[in-house]
Amino acid sequence: MTDNKKQIISLRLSGHDLTKVKHIGQRLEARESSVLRFGIRRMLSNLGPLHDPDIKGKALLPVLIEMGPDLVRYFELDANQLDEMINGDLSDESERIDHADLELLVKSAIHEDYLYLKLKEFAERKKSAQSPSSLLREYFYEKYLRAEASEVLPLRSVVQ
After folding, report:
1. Cα separation of 27 and 24, whole Å?
2. 98 lies in a domain?
3. In a domain, 4, yes or no
4. What total number of domains does the chain contain?
5. Quick one: pLDDT at residue 160?
6. Are residues 19 and 70 in the same domain?
7. Is the torsion defined by CA of 142, 147, 151, 157 positive or negative?
8. 3-7, 137-141, 154-158: lowest mean pLDDT where?
9. Rounded CA gap, 1 and 21, in Å?
């Protein structure tokens, strides 16, 4: 049985962040604690699949696409850490996300122009003028979720 009691926690915020929370609370006519709980619930919802250790590889793709760059920047993750977090001990190669794609995600979190350069051929093939982050989203979804593997260029072909 789970314990549904609320617990008091200590949370450090910069003065600037706390001011923002206060202003949002005032605008919503809500308490600051409600604004913080909303933010935590939203984050838990976005990162929910990471809570389950059995969800790995391509099943984590939506989290990776939507939150990956922020996770990389905030937690200072590198491609090896992402690989361990996403693929772990996954033995089915067809379910794994390529290490080269994880490296692309890490580098794109630092500089979006790098992302565009690496996906230029993919963008030209798609005849797309999307933003670099939208282009990465389309590349990942097409490669891992929508198309047959033979229809999508491997990253090594895109990069060269």
Report:
1. 5
2. yes
3. no
4. 2
5. 36
6. no
7. positive
8. 154-158
9. 34
One domain, residues 82 and 141: yes
Phi/psi-derived region of residue 29, left when phi > 0, alpha when psi is between -120 and 50, beta in every other case: left
Residue 83 lies in a domain: yes
154, pLDDT greater than 70: no
User: For all residues of the chain together, what is the average pLDDT?
Assistant: 84
Question: Which has more confidence, 140 or 33?
Answer: 33
Read off the pLDDT of residues 90-132 as tens digits, 9 standing for 90 and up: 989 889 999 999 998 888 877 777 776 777 777 777 676 677 7
Task: Output the DSSP codes for 101-131.
Answer: HHHHHHHHHH-HHHHHHHTHHHHHHHT----
Q: Is 62 exposed, middle or buried (0-12, 13-18, 19+ CB in 10 A)?
A: middle
Structure tokens at 31: 């308490």
* Enclosing domain of residue 69: 53-159
107 and 80 belong to one structural domain: yes
